[in-house]
Structure formats: C-alpha cells, structure tokens
Amino acid sequence: MSSDEVSLLHHVRLTGLMPGMTYHYQVTAGVNVTGDHSFRTFPPESGSFDFIVYGDSQEQLPTFTQLERHKLVADRIAEEETDVTFVLHVGDTVGDPENPEEWNRFFAAGGGAMLANTTIYPITGNHEEIDDGVTYYEAFDMPPWYSFDCGDAHFTMLDSSDISGSRMTEQTAWLRNDLASNTDPPWKFAAFHHPPYSSGTRHPGGWLNFRDLWGGPVFEENDVNAVFNGHVHSYQRYLVNGIQYVVAATGGGPMYTLTEEKATGYQNSLENTLGYTRVHLDAENETVLMEFMPVAEISDDNKEVLSIYPRGSVFESVVVELSRTPDLVPEEFILPAQVFAGENNTIGLSVANRGSEVSDAFTLSLSAEGTEIGVTEVGSLEPGAATEVNFVWRPASASTYELTAW
Ligand SMILES: [Fe+2]
C-alpha cells in the first residue's frame, strides 16, 4: 500500500488484516527506507497470547534521557519478548509533551526495535495533561477511552488524567456499558494511569476516588480479573476482592519510594527497579500468568543505573484463575491441652477462604463421630482471610473421637 499525503505526523490505517498472522512492512519516505519490520495480529476468536504492560517512560532532564533509561526496558522487551501480540502503555509516555525532542527520544527508545515490531495501546497520564493531550493525540490518534478484544480477553483503557476530568460521568457511564455489553470474552482487563491501590510515600493508599468510582461498583460487579496502573514509579501488586491491581510504572521515569506500611490488599512490590510486566493468557487451561521482569537497578538518588539484570530474570510469577469463586476450607482444629469427659471443652476451628471471591456468610457445623456438636454462623470472608470459630463440646465418655467439620 502507499500514501502520498504529506504531513508532519503521518498516520496510515491498515485494514483487511487476517487474525493470527505476522505481517512484514517497510516504510519508505523519500530516500529513507526502514529495515524489514513485522507485527502480529490478534489470535482468532480463542487462543493463547502474550502481552506486555509498562508505563511512565518519561525522562528527567538534565539527569537522564529516554535513551538512557526507557531504552533499556524497550530494548529488553524487543529482544526477549518476540512473541508478544501487543504492548500496553499505562501513561506518562513523555515527561514534557511540549518538547518535540523528547517525543523523538520516546520513539527512538521504544521504536528502535520494540515499537517497530509490535503494536502499542497507550493511555494518557498526568504528563500528557501539560499540553492538554494535544501532542499525545497527534502522536497516537486514539480516543481518550476505548476498548478492544484480543482472543478470550476484553481490554478496557481508561483516562484518569485531568484531560477527561470534566467528562468523568460520561466516561464512567461508557465504562459500565462497555463491561456489561462485552460479556463474551471470559477474561477482562482494565488499565488507567492513577493506581487506586498504591503505597507511594507521596500519595500513600493510592487514588481512593478511583476505588469508589470504578473499583467496587464497576470492576467487581463485572468480574474484571486485573487492573493495570502506572504513576507511582515502582512495581506493586495488590489483590482486592478477587481483582489483581498491578502498578507497572517501571518504564524509565525516576523511581519513587514506598511507605513501610502498605495499602490494603498489598501482595508484593519492588523499588528502584526498571522493568516490565509480561502477561501470558493460556486459553486452554483458563489461566493467566503475570510476571514482573526486572531490567535495571537504579540508585536511590536516581542518578545512576547500578546494574542490569540478566535476561529472563523474573521477580515474581502470579497465576490468576478464571473462576472467581469463594473456596472455604476448614484448616485446623485448635484443641485444649486436655479434653475432659462429662465437662464443657472449647474446640477451636480455623476456616479460610482460599478462593478469589468474597464469600457470603455461611454456616459451619462440627461433629464428633457423626454426632453434631454445634452449628455456628460465620460472616463473609475476604479472599485469603481466615477466621477462628469456637464450639463447646461435652464428650459423654473418655474415648477416641473423630471430629468432622463442614
Ligand atoms: Fe504519572
């Protein structure tokens, strides 16, 4: 195909592409001809695929440029993740959107190899606000919020920046409708810049407004599996009511420190480290594997790259199951040192929710040799939470009893 249109930023729309294919392309502009590059189209209706999540690739002049930090991450993705279907960028592409040189460095850092050979799905962060998103929209030609399907997954990309601040009600109504009307893909992922769960020293707890606006009422109601955010320059992961919240703000910007005490749902984190999150959706086994891949260790003062991680380094691997059900497990009896026949003895039982969904209130029953000792009401349990329940048991005679709980 060819396009003769002359413009400073040239967008070419490709149509009629087949699913599950690798397409090769070359760009010719005057006497300049690029090398042979390729990108992959989404798998047919169902199928396994990999995608990458990272963000906050901005530079911080005069300390470092995108070519010194962002490029480390983008080059590693290009070298190691040759099978990825797309890259999801969670905002703050550049630090100063009014500086065309930084945009050049963003595309040079990412485009050297990574962007040239994959597809990027961007969203706006707070840095894109500086010129009200004008250069961001010129560069990417994307709507402020949008969604797409890839294989068995639905992706919803949101704008948490002030660019859309006055349209938040409109965006939230769109989001509700988007999730409610795209129920076919079993997996659901959302992404936006400001993390609702975060432990950054500058903004401990995270953006509670987005928990209230989108978290419980929309994501939980619509069985979203994972939410990807940026902004607090670190890797962080939270699990709240069955939803994985991943802060993937490790694309090159200056690293931020986290508080000792972590926000609710905290699972894991890594500071002072650039890297990216790799996600593998296994369509057959109905699981998703999320891995944080560290690339470079940065000094506390953000001035130096201290070391480069070996290729294939994995900080943590998390398996996400598609089924989101509570799984109540009686785990352990807590017996007194001695049980006396003919007297009241207190028998403790710990019960845990090992599933990924909040359980409803439930009834727990304890029996000795098939004879019921008691029944107790237990309130709802968060995923991963455990509680201890006590029963009073008066065994008739000294003997060996088998205790059963359900
Ligand atoms: Fe940000």
Question: How would you briefly describe this protein structure?
Answer:
This protein is of the alpha+beta class and 406 residues long. The protein contains five helices and 24 strands.
The CATH architecture designation of the largest domain is 4-Layer Sandwich
Q: How many β-strands, per DSSP?
A: 24
Shape: elongated
Secondary-structure element order, as H and E?
EEEEEHEHEHEEHEHEEEEEEEEEEEEEE
Largest sheet data: 7 strands, mixed
Distance linking N and C termini: 66 Å
What does this structure look like?
There is one protein chain. By secondary structure, this protein is an alpha+beta fold. It folds into 2 domains: 44-321, Purple Acid Phosphatase, chain A, domain 2, CATH 3.60.21.10; 328-405, Immunoglobulin-like (Sandwich), CATH 2.60.40. Helices cover 14% and strands 33% of the residues. The chain has helices at residues 70-80, 100-111, 134-140, 168-181, 208-220; strands spanning 22-25, 28-29, 32-33, 37-40, 49-54, 86-89, 120-122, 146-150, 153-157, 187-191, 226-229, 235-240, 243-248, 266-270, 273-282, 287-298, 305-308, 316-321, 328-334, 345-353, 362-368, 371-378, 386-393, 403-405. Strands 5, 6, 7, 15, 16, 17 and 18 form a 7-stranded mixed sheet that branches. It has a 7-stranded mixed sheet with strand order 8-9-10-11-13-12-14, covered by helices on one side. The radius of gyration is 26 Å and the shape is elongated. The N and C termini lie far apart (66 Å). 37% of the residues are buried. The structure holds fe (ii) ion. Fe (ii) ion is lined by residues 56, 92, 125-127, 193, 231.
